[in-house]
Amino acid sequence: MFPTAPSSPRLEPSKRSEAGAPGRNLCCGLFLFLPLLCLLATACHPEPPPDLTIINGLEPESLDPAIITGQAEMRIVQGLFEGLTRLDPKTADPIPGLAEHWEISPDQCTYTFHLRTNLLWSTGEPITAADVLYSWIRVLDPATASDYAGQLFHLKNGEAFYAGKIKNPDLLGIHAPDPFTVRVELEEPTAFFLDLCAFSTLSVVPRQTIDRHGDAWLKTRPLPSSGPYELTAWRINDKIRLKKNPRYWDAAQTRSAIIDFLPVGSPNAALNLYERGQADIVWDKELVPTELLDVLLKRPDFHPFNYLGTYFFRFNVTRPPYTDPRVRQALALAIDKQRLVQRITRNGEPIASHFVPDGTARYTPPAGLGHDPARARKLLAEAGFPGGKGFPRGEYMFNAAAGGSAKMHEKIAVELQQMWRDELGIEIELRQLEWKVYLSAQSQLDYDLTRSSWVGDYNDPNTFLEMFTSDNGNNRTGWKNARYDGLIRSANRQTDPAAREKKFQEAELLLVRDELPIVPLFFNVGLNYYDPEKIQGIWPNMIDQHPLQFIRRKPEAGTRRQH
Amino acid sequence: MNETARSTHSHNNGLPGVARSAPATDAPATTPDSLQSPGRRAWRRFKKNRPALTSAGILIVLLLSVALWPVILQLAARLGPAGAAFAHIHNPDQLSDAQFAPPGPGHWCGTDGHGRDVFSRILYGAQISLLVGGVGASVSLVIGVLWGAIAGLAGGRLDSVLMRIVDILYSLPSIIFVIVLLTTTGQMLKAASWVQESPGLAKELRLMLLFIGLGAVSWLTMARIVRGQVLSLRTRGFVDAARVLGAGPWHILTRHIIPNVFSVVIVYLTLTVPGIILYESFLSYLGLGVQPPMASWGSLIAEGVDQINPIRIYWWLIAFPGGVLVITLLALNFLGDGLRDAWNVKGSA
Amino acid sequence: MYFLRRIAFTLPLLLIISALAFAMVHAAPGGPFDRERVPASPEIERNLKAKYHLDEPLWRQYLRYLGDLAHGDFGPSLKYRNHTVNDVIAQALPVSLLLGSLALGFALGIGLPAGYLGAARQGQWQDFTSGFFSLLAVCVPGFVIAPLLVTLFALKWRLLPVALWESPFHAILPTVALGLFYAGKVARLLREGMLNTMQSEFITAARAKGLGENAILLKHAFRLAILPVVSYSGPMLADLLTGSFVIENFFQIPGLGVYFINSSINLDYPMTVGLALLYAGLLIALNLAVDFAYQLLDPRVKYE
Questions:
Q1: Contact at CB, B5 and C217, closer than 8 angstroms
Q2: What is the CATH number of the domain that holds A502?
Q3: Does any CB of chain C come closer than 8 Å to the CB of residue A269?
């Protein structure tokens, strides 16, 4: 390793820029020299500067529309692959995408989409109805192993086909009578189906490329894309670069030619990069240092907005004493949610008494339980624990904040623990678990109370309320209620919006007032930061989706600020 | 230069130039030093070492505060309303409305985001961190030194086997190891009836498991370093001499080899302690360490680090826990140096 | 001969490590596809597992893994499903190697002179200063150093970039933040080794021959004194070259260090085992080199 005879003292620190250090540290010299050359070499190959740099949260797990599940992924993928509909940049409502217009049958179970006739892949081949069929059937193909295959279970025979009970794809509720028409038949009226059509899972992917390259299809260049951008570089944990797709049907409206995405997991790093002008937009909710919120929120470039997310905790209703609804109600009523949002989360979150966030489309949620310690004590006493006497030690389980976000869960847990101790005289211990252990404990009902959150997939109450039906995998409370199941089922069969809303409200009251397998704490507030003087084309909306092609740097703002 | 080195030399041995190849057993006593019992001689030398003495003082004060602070709070709580209020605001887990209060007469080290008293949290956190550091150091000392010394002394096949085991343990993903240890063993213990009867015990057991996990990874580098030293020592004259005189391997190991590697061991040990204390905080960050609201120095520092940013710094959240950690570790190091010098077997020729 | 045997042992050693690591990741609770959001039907989870053969008995999965490994294929990543483990290593390892070498150069460049100075001027102010700073470097963790450096150099004085990995300037702060800790350790170990060696009989002999103190220190003492540093450099290099989670995470460097931690947390089985093997291979090679270096530095070292 080290040359044997030391020749000179070399007491001065060896300079790193120096190439070959003579004498005893020949080896170190080599170590310094070679890598520096590499570094210079990598730094020298020129890349044009991007028009926009966006900090997008953690490295995407995938960019395959059928595989992705997270928002960071979807935000990139929606630029690459478009569905029959796409999202309005201001309201995030579905507007015509690859489909120019459509008809809906009176029973709301059949949709007939008419594709645009000028659709081309970024590589020049035409996009037809067959491509739509292929893309959707691919999601339902077990070999694709799509996490979100469930989004297509609304299709007639979708679930049966996925389970292998039906083999023939012709029996699926999707047909292409001609190259520019897609006819979709649904199992039941699905009020949010047009939203689903804009969802990444249902977007249109290039058949030839996938057939040829299999699982490695995203590594081909040029990668055919159906959306406003094409993928030009994807260096894992380093950078993703999108370039404008000139063959996109609406290419004239695409504002920025090159967009870079930086995967950043640490809030401090994100803020530092932004402050130094290395990034134009930071739009992952986790990437804000919460300690600074009181200062940052006063600045014009920090933009809080409401979105479809609820922070709550679950009870394990199969474990005494949480089997008793009075105990659950007591614990809920003892919580001062106002303190949580004012002192801990500090982003102006509205406190939650109900589960479905305010502002959800086609729905007004009913009010649930508020803050009432006196009633909480009374209920606890009725349940057999006056003043908390005899109440067994419980555990509040939450996941560690590994992965970058602030230690919000821990802070909320610490506050809850104190509130229950002070108001009810009961001792709930905190149990912080590593992420996967936490998930597995939750799904095996190996907990007493556990923190949770839920972000809606689409703008509809169903994405929130459906999860607490008896056999839903996301229930994870052990709570089974036949009346609730019936209400949700019948709500989704309604074609009249008002009747549908009423059923949902009835169900939600069961959830947040009477039975209380969960306690909603507050609704998430997202925070994007970008300088509105320089960046245009981002509008706040309930699902926090911002189509890339409308975002641009203001012309007069010139090139990026470099300090 | 010449002068320097010579004074160095005498500082260490009191006797420049006397061969010190053979510790303790051979060579008749020729100096006043060795007329005294080793313990008294060491103490006499140690007393002269001012940094070491100061360090020992600091550590004693720290240990006393850590031990007595909870008692003081308990006593205060019984001394009328003023005492109770004092105990209340200094309860390390007591939340209050005084969020991010800077250091002042009420909270000597300020408060954190929940309005908890940072001073108390540091003293309570010391229990965990000192314990973690102590356990790690002991494991490193006992297992690491013996393992490395045996490997180095035995050489050949045994050396290969022992060192390959170290390589294997070093290569295994330590996070997974801790996860598996905490969950599977934790589950087994949880199911055991004697644990279910006392929930407090389960908490202690989790901590014990954490210590085992930390200890398990702390001795590996020590073993390598000791082995390296022993490899070079074992062919020396005094080892051969002892062997010729009929000394068994255990005798050679404990009387000749280990005393000779002791100084390197002490230094590496003092370097291990901070590593382990900080590793604990990393595990806590992953949700594998101490359970909130309990604190450790590592977790307090990690919390404080979140505050370092160009816009505003709640400096007390990082300065106090960080300062205490650094001072403790510096004191430990100077103490280690002092002990090593005082106990230097090589001086006893 | 001894070294040839050691090299021959490497393969079985890697096999043992792969088997243990494989068993350990699969023993951890939960699975790679567990998410907060459970798929709409249990069927979906079953298909996911089937796609990656996770439904097979463990021994068969392991044999399958070994079979792929024999072809140089570390398998797919279960977290980053468009990438294979080979892809990730190919992209991230060079970055970590580079940063690690720079940090090593920094650690040795600062640590060796500091340790030498401490020993040569033992008891004087130089010793005290170098001792104090090397201890400080060891005691202040990287996750404190990194934000401090960035706040001062990148944000306050705007001299250096805050993060990312683009130009040589981007490497400076991470190198310092990563290297300081090791520099401190190297300095302490070298100082100790020097003090220890200066008491050996052959140094006394050299003194008796009337050699100058400088010559003694450099020509004779240093060679032996560096032994503890050399022992330590095996694990140190393996750690440095495979990247650091804290530093890479903070400076947003696309290196390998983050995967060591994240793959374990995500239970990305092939990635965890693959990285353990990569690390093991590197460590074994480095320890071999270290043992070889012992012989060069100290002729008295014999392995047989």
A1: yes
A2: 3.10.105.10
A3: yes
C220 domain-assigned = yes
Asked whether residue C113 is domain-assigned, the answer is: yes
Report yes or no on A221 lying in a domain: no
What part of A 369-428 touches C (C-beta under 8 Å)?
Answer: 402-404
Q: Given a contact as 3+ CB pairs under 8 Å, which chains touch B?
A: A, C
User: Domain limits at A440?
Assistant: 310-525
Quick one: which of C175, C187, C154 has its CA closest to A35?
C175
Instruction: Test C27 with B301 for CB contact under 8 angstroms.
Output: no
Q: What pLDDT, in 10s, does the model give residues A73-102?
A: 999 999 999 999 999 999 889 999 999 999
CATH of domain B48-89+115-343: 1.10.3720.10
* Calpha distance B131→B65 (Å, rounded): 15
CB pairs under 8 A between A and C: 217
CATH number at residue A120: 3.90.76.10
Question: What ipTM is given for this predicted complex?
Answer: 0.88
Environment class of C1 (CB within 10 Å of its CB; exposed 0-12, middle 13-18, buried 19+): exposed
Compute the Cα dihedral for A337, A340, A341, A342 and give only its sign. Answer: positive
Domain-located, residue A431: yes
A452, containing H or E segment: strand A449-455
- Whether the per-residue pLDDT at B287 is higher than 90: the answer is no
Query: What's the CATH code of the domain at C136?
Result: 1.10.3720.10
Does A46 map to a domain? no
Domain boundaries defined on chain B: 48-89+115-343
Is C64 a domain residue?
Answer: no
Partner residues linked to A259 by β-bridges: A52, A242
Distance, in Å, from the CA atom of C74 to the CA atom of A193, rounded to the nearest integer, reads 41
- Residue A398 forms part of a structural domain: yes
The shortest CB-CB distance from C144 to any of B176, B270, B305 is to B305
- Structurally, chain A folds into a number of domains equal to 2
pLDDT tens per residue across all 304 residues of chain C: 788 888 888 899 999 999 999 999 998 888 888 888 888 788 888 888 998 999 999 999 999 999 999 999 999 999 998 999 999 999 999 999 999 999 999 999 999 999 988 888 887 888 888 888 988 888 888 888 888 899 889 888 888 998 888 888 999 999 999 999 999 989 988 988 888 887 777 777 877 887 777 777 777 788 888 888 888 888 889 889 988 888 998 898 999 999 998 898 889 999 999 999 999 999 999 989 988 888 888 887 777 6
> From its phi and psi, is residue A211 left (phi > 0), alpha (psi between -120 and 50) or beta?
alpha
pTM of full prediction above 0.95: no
Q: Is the distance from CB of A311 to CB of A415 less than 8 angstroms?
A: no
Residue-range definition of the domain harbouring residue C209: 97-261
User: For the packed helices A325-333 and A373-382, what is the interaxial angle rounded to 10 degrees?
Assistant: 160
Query: Within a domain: residue C222?
Result: yes
Looking at the partner chain, which of A32, A39, A264 has a beta carbon nearest the beta carbon of C105? A32
**Beta carbons of B287 and A434 less than 8 Å apart:** yes
pLDDT at A212 over 50: yes
A156-165 mean pLDDT: 92
Contacting residues of A for C164, CB less than 8 Å apart:
262, 273, 278
Which of A434, A444, A451 is best to mutate for the B interface (most B CBs within 10 A)?
A434
- A-chain residue closest to B282, CA distance: A402
